[in-house]
């Protein structure tokens, strides 16, 4: 009977604009703009369990090169529960460690990453919290890298969605979290190489591309998901869910059924120019760093204002890819997204400006060069006077 009722319940929850999920907190956002499409108690403080590893994995990408070697700490075996069974001193490349974190949900791997990057769990947790604030998270406090339960380790559905959106900007991260099975290399255990993803929904939906499951008794079942259809990616979060896969599927069906991407502007598109002071060129062209989309209810017209807000002053040298400002899109609902605008080419500084703009030492260098030339000129003039009048040269210099 339950099997017969489940599809009916699913269809009923997705009719109209109402959504019914078992999760205590849930949200679905447009990954491109970050706009909230629907939410339920999304700012309530909750335990994230292993969805914490989204932040740990992102920091691994941001602070390590793929071939950097991470060495398991001497006390790595003290880490509880899910693990890749690291041995003290074992070596694993950063690229393989990311698979272990995101697929097997390796708590011991997270500990090794934290020690490698920051030297201690405490220092790494500080780094996690700083990065969360940069992203815009306002109700998050991390105390460990893996999500093992801790009274002062918490976040919200909305903050998790923001973290996932940021992490999914990295191609390497997207590749890992959409992978179901991956074999890693490790220095000690040649028998335990296969990492299998805990996200079983990957096998049920070809448009699914991640991201992370999580479970502890206090947290309940948590899931941060991503699906992409026709270039439109949505990110879902369910926390303390009775049926995380059904909840995730419900949110996807509703979001893709109700919304669409319109008026897409692609990365690399020119949006304006910015004046350059002291450069070999007097202006540089600004292009979009990433796609700029407007998501609207299906069938609705696009009503949005778009403006380029450049930096107030731009001094040479300008590097290619340097941020020049923001492309600001305000939609009919008043939602504002800011897409970075970057320089499409480098603009070198003129020689004198290059000296002047090299910081305080550069300024002293310019002053020194001027004094040296002045002394050289005066000494030369003194020699010429001495030859004409037979007087001894001044020894003032």
Give a written overview of the molecule.
By secondary structure, the protein is an alpha+beta fold. It has 3 domains: 2-260, Beta-lactamase; 266-343, D-Ala-D-Ala carboxypeptidase, C-terminal domain (Peptidoglycan synthesis regulatory factor (PBP3), Domain 2); 358-389. Helix content is 33%, strand content 25%. It is built from 10 helices and 16 strands. The strands form 5 sheets. It has a 5-stranded antiparallel β-sheet with strand order 2-1-9-8-7, with helices on both faces. α2 (53-63) packs antiparallel against α3, α2 (53-63) runs parallel beside α6 and α4 (107-118) crosses α5 (121-135). The chain is globular, with a radius of gyration of 28 Å. It starts with a helix and ends in an 8-residue tail after the last helix. Mean pLDDT is 88; it is low at 1-16, 360-373 and 384-397.
List the helices and strands and how they pair.
Layout lengths: L1 H12 L11 E6 L5 E5 L12 H11 L5 E3 L19 E3 H11 L2 H12 L2 H15 L21 H11 L3 H7 L3 E3 L10 E3 L11 E9 L3 E10 L2 E10 L2 H15 E7 L4 E6 L7 E6 L3 E6 L6 E7 L12 E9 L4 E8 L7 H6 L2 H31 L8
Antiparallel strand pairs: 1-2, 1-9, 3-4, 5-6, 7-8, 8-9, 10-13, 11-12, 12-16, 14-15, 15-16
Helix pairs in contact: 2-3, 2-4, 2-6, 3-4, 4-5
């Amino acid at each position: 009977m339950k099997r017969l009722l489940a599809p009916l319940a699913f269809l009923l929850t997705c009719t109209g604009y109402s959504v019914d999920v078992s999760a205590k907190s849930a949200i679905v956002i447009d990954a491109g703009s970050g706009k909230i499409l629907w939410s339920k108690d999304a700012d309530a403080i909750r335990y994230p369990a292993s969805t914490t590893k989204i932040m740990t994995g992102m920091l691994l990408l941001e602070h390590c090169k793929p071939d950097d070697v991470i060495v398991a700490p001497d006390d790595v075996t003290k880490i509880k529960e899910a693990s890749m069974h690291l041995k003290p001193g074992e070596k694993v490349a950063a690229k393989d460690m990311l698979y272990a974190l995101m697929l097997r949900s390796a708590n011991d791997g997270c500990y090794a990453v934290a020690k490698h990057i920051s030297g201690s769990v405490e220092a790494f947790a500080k780094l996690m919290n700083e990065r969360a604030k940069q992203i815009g998270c306002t109700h998050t406090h991390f105390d460990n890298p893996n999500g093992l339960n801790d009274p002062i380790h918490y976040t919200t559905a909305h903050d998790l969605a923001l973290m996932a959106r940021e992490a999914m900007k990295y191609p390497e991260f997207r590749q890992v979290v959409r992978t179901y099975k991956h074999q890693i290399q490790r220095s000690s255990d040649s028998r335990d190489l296969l990492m299998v993803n805990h996200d079983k929904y990957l096998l049920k939906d070809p448009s699914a591309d991640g991201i992370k499951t999580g479970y502890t008794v206090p947290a309940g079942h948590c899931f941060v998901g991503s699906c992409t259809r026709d270039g439109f990616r949505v990110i879902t979060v369910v926390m303390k869910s009775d049926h995380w896969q059904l909840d995730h599927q419900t949110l996807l069906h509703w979001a893709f059924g109700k919304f669409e991407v319109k008026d897409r502007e692609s990365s690399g598109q020119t949006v304006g120019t910015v004046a350059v002071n002291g450069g070999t060129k007097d202006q540089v062209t600004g292009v979009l760093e990433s796609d700029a989309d407007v998501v609207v209810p299906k069938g609705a017209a696009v009503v949005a204002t778009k403006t380029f807000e450049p930096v107030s002053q731009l001094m040479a040298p300008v590097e290619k890819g340097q941020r020049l400002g923001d492309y600001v899109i305000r939609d009919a609902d008043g939602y504002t997204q800011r897409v970075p605008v970057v320089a499409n080419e480098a603009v070198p500084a003129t020689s004198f400006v290059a000296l002047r703009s090299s910081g305080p030492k550069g300024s002293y260098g310019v002053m020194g060069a001027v004094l040296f030339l002045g002394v050289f000129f005066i000494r030369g003039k003194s020699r010429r006077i001495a030859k004409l009048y037979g007087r001894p040269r001044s020894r003032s210099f």
